[in-house]
C-alpha cells in the first residue's frame, strides 16, 4: 500500500511538473483563436496570420473554419455558452444583429480601433447595430451584383456587352440563334432569384427608388419595381433550358463549362468559376439601363467583418489582430489573394477582374432586401425570392409579386403601413 | 410473512438499481425536452432569452399570417406525404413482402436488393435522386426522351406540380425495404398449415392475401403505420437536401420540419433566429404526434385483437 501511494505521488509530481512546464511555454506567447465560415481559405489566412505574427511577436493565431450554412448557429451557441473564439468573422446587417445585440461583441470606435477611419460609412453601417449606432466589426469585403460573361464566347459570336436593356434582349436573341445558352441561370435555388433581380434590374430600379423606399414615398407596388419585374419576365426564355429545375450548382457548372455566355449573380462567383475552370476568360458588366447612355448601376452589399469577443481574456492581443485586419496593408493582401474587393480606403487591386468590379462599384445602389429588409420576419428577401420564383414559373404577375412583398414588409415597416 | 428488515433491504436494493437509469433519463431526455418546451414561453433575441410572454408565441403561430400561412401549407403537405407514403411505401412494402414470402426465383437476391437503399444515408439518396431527376442531364428525363415520351420530361424538382411527388417517390425508394422487412417477418410467423388448408379449400391468391395474410400481419401494419406517421411529420432531410430550406419552388415542398428550422435557426435569407416561436411550433408538433401516435397504436392494437 505504501509503495503504491509513493508511486502515485511520483506520477502526480511528474504530471504537475509537465503541466507547469507546458503552461510556462504557453504563457510566453498569447494564442488567439480565429473562427470563420471560409474553410476553403485556410491556406491564405495562415499566410495572413504569419505576416501578422511577424509584426507582432508573442501572438499566435489559430485558424478554425466551420461549415457556412451552420456557422451562425455554431458561433452564437458557442458565444452564449461563453466558449466563443477571441476573434471571429461575423456576417453583416440582420445576421450581425443577432450576435451583437446580446452583447457578445466588443464595440469598436476611434479610441480602441483608430482603423475604423479607414472605412467608408456604408461599410461601417453594415457592421453597426441599428439600436446604438456602434460599430461591432471591421468589414472585410464588399460583393457586387452584376453580370459575368464569357469573353471568348462573346468574341466568337461577335457580340459586345449591352449598353441598354433592348441591346441585352437583342444580344440574347443573337446568342440563342447561334445555339448558345445566353444565361446559365436557373431558379430552383431560392436565393438565386434575389441575385438575378439585382444583377439584371438594378439600373431599371434606380437609386431614386431605393431612396423613396426608405423615406416612405414608394413601396414595392411602385411602377419602377413592377416595371422592372415585367422586363425580367421577358428575359426568362434566355435562361438555362428547364431553368425552374436548375439549381445554383448546376447553373455554375453550365457557365464554368463554357456552355452559357452569361451569369447574372454576385461578384463572388468569379473566383468560383475560375476554380472550376481556370482557362475561362471572364468579364463583368453592370445591369443595363433602360436607354443607352444612361449610367448603369450595380448593387453592392458588405459580406461581413472581423469582430472581437467581448468576453475574451486576451483583449489586448485580439484588438491588435482586428486593428491589423483593418489596415490597407491587409486589404491589399486580401484583394490580391482572395480576389475580393476590400472596402478599406487606399487599397489597390492588381487583378483585372477585381479592378473591373471596383470600377463598377463607383455607381451603385444597395442590395436592397439584405441591406434594408432582412431584420424581421417576414424577411424582404424571402418574399422577393418566392415571388420572383413563382413569377418566372408563370404562376403570378409582377404586380401581384409587388403587392405581396409590400403586404409582408408592412407588418413591421412603418412607412408601408397605410 | 417476511420480516421488516428484509423488506427495507429489498426496497433499498431496488432503489439502488433504479436510480442510475432514472437519473440518466432525467438528465439526458426529460430535462432537454422540458427546457425546450420552456423556451416557447419567452421572447428571444438571437440566443438571448428576454421577457416571459406566456402563451403569446403559440397564439402568434395561428393568428399572424406570416406564421400561420406557411404552417398550414406545410401541415397540408405533411398530410399528403403521410397519405402517399402509406400507399406507396407501406402498401408497396406489403406487396413486396408477399412477393418475397412466396420465395420466387432469386428471392434471396431480391430480399437484399429491396433492403439495400435503407442502409444508405439520406445525403447520398438525395444526391443520387437530384442527379437522376436533373432536367437536362438526368437519367429519368433521358429515359423518357429515349422512349419517345419527351413531352413528359419535366424539371421534376423545379415544377411546383411535381416537386413534392418527386420527393415522396425518392423517400419511398429509400425506405420501402423497411416495411417490406417488417411485413415479411410478420408473414413468416403465420403457420404454414393455415395457408395450405386455405389453398386446399380453393381460396384464390387475392382471397388468401385479404382474408388470411393481411389480418395475421396486422401487428406489422401497426408498427409500420406508427413509424411512418412519425417519419412523415418529422420529415426534414430529404426536402432540405433536395429542394432547400425554403421548400422550393415557392413553398410547394415546404413541410413542418423546414418551417421549424427556419423559425428557430433562421436561414441565409432571413437572418432572424427565433427560439420562442420555433420552440412553440416544436412543442405543438410533439404533442400532436404523441397524441396521434398513441391513439393510432391503441386503435390498431384493438383491431389486431378483433381480427
Describe this structure in words.
The complex is a heterodimer of chains A (418) and B (307). With 418 residues, chain A is α/β, with parallel strands linked by helices. In chain A, 49% of the residues lie in helices and 14% in strands. Chain A contains 17 helices and nine strands. In chain A, strands 1, 2, 3, 4, 5, 6, 7, 8 and 9 form a nine-stranded mixed sheet that branches. Chain A is globular. Residues 1-5 and 10-26 of chain A have low confidence and may be disordered. With 307 residues, chain B is an all-alpha fold. Chain B has helices spanning 4-39, 56-63, 65-101, 107-115, 122-132, 139-146, 163-175, 177-188, 192-200, 205-216, 218-233, 237-243, 256-265, 275-306; strands at residues 42-45, 48-52. Chain B has a two-stranded antiparallel sheet. In chain B, a hairpin with a 2-residue loop joins β1 (42-45) and β2. In chain B, α3 packs antiparallel against α11. Chain B is flat and about 70 Å long. The mean pLDDT of chain B is 90. The A-B interface holds A 69, 72-73, 76-77, 79-80, 93-95, 97-99, 101-103, 186-191, 194, 240-247, 250, 374-379, 381-382, 385-387, 389-390, 393, 395, 408, 411 and B 45-48, 64, 66-67, 130, 133-136, 154-160, 243-246, 248-251, 265-266, 268-274.
Amino acid at each position: 500500500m505504501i509503495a503504491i501511494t509513493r508511486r502515485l505521488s511520483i506520477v502526480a509530481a511528474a504530471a504537475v511538473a509537465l503541466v507547469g512546464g507546458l503552461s510556462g511555454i504557453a504563457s510566453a506567447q498569447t494564442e488567439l483563436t480565429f473562427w470563420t465560415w471560409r474553410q476553403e481559405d485556410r491556406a491564405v489566412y495562415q499566410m495572413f496570420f504569419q505576416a501578422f505574427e511577424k509584426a507582432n511577436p508573442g501572438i499566435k493565431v489559430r485558424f478554425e473554419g466551420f461549415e457556412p450554412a451552420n456557422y451562425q448557429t455554431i458561433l452564437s451557441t458557442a458565444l452564449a455558452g461563453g466558449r466563443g473564439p477571441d476573434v471571429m468573422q461575423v456576417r453583416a446587417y440582420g445576421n450581425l444583429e443577432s450576435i451583437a445585440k446580446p452583447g457578445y461583441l466588443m464595440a469598436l470606435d476611434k479610441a480602441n480601433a483608430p482603423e475604423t477611419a479607414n472605412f467608408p460609412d456604408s461599410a461601417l453601417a453594415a457592421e453597426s447595430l441599428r439600436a446604438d449606432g456602434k460599430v461591432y466589426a471591421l468589414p472585410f469585403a464588399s460583393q457586387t451584383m452584376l453580370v459575368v460573361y464569357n469573353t471568348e464566347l462573346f468574341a466568337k459570336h461577335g457580340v459586345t456587352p449591352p449598353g441598354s436593356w433592348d441591346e441585352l434582349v437583342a444580344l440574347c436573341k443573337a446568342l440563342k440563334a447561334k445555339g448558345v445558352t445566353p444565361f446559365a441561370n436557373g431558379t430552383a435555388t431560392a436565393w438565386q432569384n434575389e441575385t438575378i433581380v439585382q444583377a439584371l434590374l438594378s439600373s431599371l430600379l434606380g437609386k431614386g427608388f431605393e431612396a423613396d423606399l426608405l423615406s416612405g414615398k414608394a413601396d414595392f407596388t411602385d411602377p419602377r419595381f413592377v416595371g422592372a419585374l415585367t422586363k425580367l419576365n421577358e428575359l426568362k426564355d434566355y435562361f438555362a433550358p428547364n431553368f425552374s429545375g436548375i439549381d445554383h450548382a448546376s447553373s455554375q457548372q453550365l457557365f464554368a463549362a463554357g456552355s452559357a455566355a452569361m451569369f447574372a449573380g454576385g461578384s463572388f462567383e468569379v473566383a468560383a468559376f475560375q476554380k472550376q475552370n481556370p482557362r475561362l476568360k471572364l468579364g463583368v458588366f453592370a445591369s443595363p439601363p433602360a436607354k443607352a447612355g444612361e449610367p448603369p448601376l450595380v448593387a453592392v452589399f458588405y459580406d461581413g467583418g472581423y469582430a472581437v469577443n467581448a468576453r475574451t481574456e486576451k483583449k489586448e492581443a485580439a484588438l491588435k489582430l482586428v486593428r491589423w485586419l483593418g489596415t490597407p496593408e491587409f486589404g491589399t493582401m486580401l484583394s490580391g489573394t482572395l480576389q475580393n474587393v476590400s472596402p478599406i480606403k487606399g487599397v489597390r487591386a492588381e487583378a483585372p477582374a477585381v479592378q473591373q468590379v471596383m470600377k463598377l462599384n463607383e455607381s451603385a445602389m444597395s442590395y436592397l432586401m439584405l441591406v434594408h429588409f432582412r431584420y424581421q420576419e417576414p424577411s424582404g428577401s424571402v418574399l422577393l425570392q418566392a415571388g420572383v420564383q413563382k413569377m418566372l414559373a408563370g404562376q403570378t404577375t409582377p404586380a401581384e409579386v409587388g403587392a405581396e412583398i409590400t403586404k409582408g414588409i408592412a407588418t413591421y415597416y412603418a412607412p408601408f403601413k397605410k | 410473512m417476511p420480516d421488516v428488515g428484509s423488506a427495507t433491504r429489498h426496497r433499498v436494493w431496488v432503489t439502488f438499481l433504479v436510480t442510475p437509469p432514472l437519473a440518466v433519463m432525467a438528465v439526458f431526455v426529460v430535462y432537454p425536452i422540458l427546457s425546450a418546451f420552456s423556451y416557447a414561453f419567452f421572447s428571444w433575441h438571437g440566443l438571448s432569452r428576454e421577457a416571459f410572454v406566456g402563451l403569446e408565441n403559440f397564439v402568434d403561430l395561428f393568428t399572424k399570417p406570416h406564421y400561420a400561412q406557411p404552417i398550414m401549407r406545410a401541415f397540408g403537405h405533411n398530410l399528403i406525404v403521410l397519405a402517399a407514403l402509406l400507399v406507396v411505401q407501406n402498401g408497396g412494402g406489403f406487396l413486396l413482402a408477399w412477393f418475397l414470402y412466396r420465395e420466387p426465383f432469386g428471392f434471396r437476391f431480391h430480399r437484399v436488393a429491396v433492403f439495400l437503399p435503407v442502409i444508405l444515408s439520406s445525403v447520398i439518396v438525395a444526391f443520387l435522386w437530384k442527379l437522376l431527376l436533373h432536367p437536362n442531364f438526368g437519367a429519368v428525363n433521358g429515359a423518357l426522351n429515349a422512349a419517345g415520351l419527351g413531352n413528359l420530361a419535366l424539371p421534376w424538382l423545379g415544377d411546383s406540380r411535381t416537386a413534392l411527388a418527386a420527393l415522396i417517390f425518392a423517400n419511398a425508394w429509400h425506405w420501402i425495404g423497411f416495411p417490406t422487412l417488417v411485413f415479411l417477418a410478420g408473414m413468416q410467423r403465420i403457420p404454414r398449415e393455415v395457408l395450405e388448408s386455405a389453398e386446399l379449400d380453393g381460396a384464390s391468391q387475392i382471397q388468401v392475401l385479404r382474408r388470411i395474410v393481411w389480418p395475421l400481419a396486422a401487428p406489422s401494419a401497426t408498427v409500420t403505420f406508427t413509424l411512418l406517421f412519425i417519419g412523415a411529420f418529422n420529415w426534414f432531410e430529404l426536402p432540405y437536401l433536395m429542394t432547400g430550406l425554403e421548400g422550393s419552388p415557392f413553398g410547394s415542398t415546404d413541410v413542418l420540419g423546414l418551417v421549424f428550422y427556419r423559425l428557430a435557426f433562421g436561414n441565409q435569407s432571413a437572418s432572424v433566429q427565433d427560439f420562442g416561436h420555433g420552440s412553440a411550433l416544436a412543442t405543438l408538433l410533439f404533442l400532436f404526434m404523441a397524441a396521434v401516435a398513441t391513439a393510432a397504436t391503441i386503435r390498431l392494437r384493438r383491431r389486431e385483437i378483433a381480427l
